[in-house]
Amino acid sequence: MDNNQSYLLNLHKQTDENIETLRTFAEENSVPIVDRLTLEMIKQVIRLHKPINILEIGTAIGYSAMQFASISKEIHVTTIERDEEMINKAKENIDLYAFNKQVKLVEGNALEQFDNVNDRTFDMIFIDAAKAQSKKFFELYTPILKDGGVVITDNVLYHGFVSDISVVRTRNVRQMVKKVIEYNEWLINHEGYTTNFLNIDDGLAISIKGES
Ligand code: SAM
To answer: Which domains can be identified in the chain, with CATH numbers?
Structure first.
């Protein structure tokens, strides 16, 4: 972590103490959740863009879904998770922090859940699941993103490997990093979207539908 990053982390007060305790749980149990400055950035996008319906791909323990929902009672988050252990933990947390009305958990592989979430259109989609599959998630779900809607993709710099794949030693990780590189290039050249890549934490892409 560089000095600027630790300075900004100290500067940002942790706002919602209840949900924030889940970060400690995530760290202790090696559950990957959105990094703090990335979360602050996404929450700021939500305050600016004012989405009502958010689709999240990759719930884990429900942390980011509840963080997004905590911004306004108007916000509804549909979030998809396939791992049973995570599903159980997310359900427990959504109950515990009383977000049942605002957060709907859809169980199963996100590549197979389109029919269970297309009861509405979305103002924002957060892609935060299997990193090699971001393009598939994008292609499957953006047809139900409104014009002017926002797609946010996390981990687009993946541990610094995206900018320097030569340091990757294992074949599996190399394959995955190649997919992330392909996705980033595809995304920046996508004619239907304007994308901005941010060098924050593990890398964040913010894409706006229909902007040129
Ligand atoms: N968004 C969460 C947060 O910040 O609190 C963290 C999500 S975590 C990085 C990624 C999650 O996506 C994992 O829990 C994993 O089980 C789930 N996942 C990966 N591929 C998936 C898929 N194809 N369908 C549904 N969930 C998936």
So the answer is: 3-209 (3.40.50.150)
